[in-house]
Amino acid sequence: MSQLPVRRLQADLLVVGGGTAGCMAAVWAKRQAPACRVVVLEKAQVDRSGCLAAGVNALNAYRRPEDDPAQLVEWVRQDNGGLVREDLVESIARRLPAVPPLLEEWGLSIPRGKKGGDYVFRGPRSIVIRGEGLKPLLAAETRRAGVEVLNRVVATGYLRDGERVVGACGFGVREGVFYVVEAPAVICATGGAAGLYPPPCGGAAHHRTWYSPFNCGTGYAMGIRAGAEMTSFEMRFVPLRVKDVQAPTGTVAQGARVRQVNALGVEYLRGDDRITTADRLERTLREQQAGHGPCYLDLGRLVPEEVRRLCEAYLAMCPSAVLYWADRGIDPQAARLEIAGAEPCLTGGHAQAGYWVDVDRRTTLPGLLAAGDVAGGAPKKYVTGCLAEGQIAAETALSLRPEGRPDRSELEHQVEQEYRRALRPLVEPGPVTPRALEGRLQKIMEEYAGGASRGYRVCESELRVAAELLREARQLAGDLGVADLHGLMAAHEVLDRLEVAAVLVEHLRYRTETRWPIYQSRADFPERDDRRWQCFVNSRREVEGTVALLERRGTSPGGWAPWH
Q1: Cα separation of 373 and 389, whole Å?
Q2: For the segment 408-438, what is each residue's pLDDT rounded down to a tens digit?
Q3: Counting beta carbons within 10 angstroms of the beta carbon of residue 258, is it exposed (0 to 12), middle (13 to 18) or buried (19 or more)?
Q4: How many domains in the chain?
Q5: How confident is the model at residue 556 (pLDDT cuts 50, 70, 90)?
């Protein structure tokens, strides 16, 4: 198959990405305006797609209704180098108390204390849930709301009328159709970017990563190509995980409250009043560099009931961990779980890389909004924050109206160009395979852009090499060749990663300080410099293809960017 039939749809709202934020945005839009036609483009199958595909055992962003939202804003600010979009974080914080009851209404089981009291807290801002089936539950509610979901459709690019986004294109992997969906409002909710760096596990286990391996930066790349302003790509996220199985350490550290120790049994985090997420990983690397590694989570003090609860928690979001222990006859109660940093990724949910948005989640391109991991500036939003952001984006999207009729001849020209670009590796196949180009990309990023083997540190001389090698790799992308639609999907995944990686390297080069240890550690500028760098580093792809870097300062959206 080399040519695909074209299917055209008209919608009132198009949501690109059917994960956590995307499903909520679609459902919320239908709740506010039942008669509107909402279409979702989903690369996988909406019942088990995105970061919640395997479930989750806690909602890690929550506040009681009586708690001051400012407290959560201050915690997020302090945990992220004193630089976050406080207006965005506050808008999320105000909606958090209403999210768990809504999920309960949809069928989610959330344990409560004695006599049906408050939720069971795992940490100061985290509540326990029975969330193995949370994504199927969201998908069922999406269908119940009357949302039209196009499963297994790979989005490739936006349609624009001048600067305004008026739709998007993509191709169906199963049925072999090229979709053209027009809408007066488009919400991007495609998640972040994994696979920029080589995964901790190689060979047949290369998809055993912490972040969803199928989130490959498509939404970022679409925005970059369209000229949207992006923010904080230099703030990568590097998770501290249980080695080999990539299980989250927070489940143990908060849920079971175990010690984090080095090979000598010394609890190396003791005595510190405040340890940020980044600090926890940096201190672990410091122990290893001092010859005190490996480092572990020590479960030896747990009683059998605590071990049982721990295994249940992992079965709800990382079942491979429990299966790994069972396969090797490991008794968790007597075990020390080795911990290590995983590969860097980009996410606006844990860190803050993403689209530059205003408090209503409008991007700098009229008609385009962003929600969830793809929206920048508001870290530590987690599941509940992404759901809240989906609501905000949906409410804003419904207020947008078409600004006249788009130029049909120009629109058809864009469709034709995107059709050719999207299908080129299939129609005009070259000798380069997606897997080979992906390996080249990951080798460049690992060796010259702060991979795990480099202690996650970067410097100007190596980043300059990375930028040049990425330019060469992007030239190779013109020789990609595939034999079928699944191969075409893989080709676009690596093409999108290349777009994102090139911008990431420019961001890493621009911020000449170290603000977020490990996430953004400059070996040549090891100190934090608030006097110079208390600002956001943003970027925009220019017409000629260069990346323009700019700084955003101020205390209000109006002081940051001219919103439409």
Answers
A1: 10
A2: 999 999 999 999 999 999 999 999 999 999 9
A3: buried
A4: 2
A5: very low
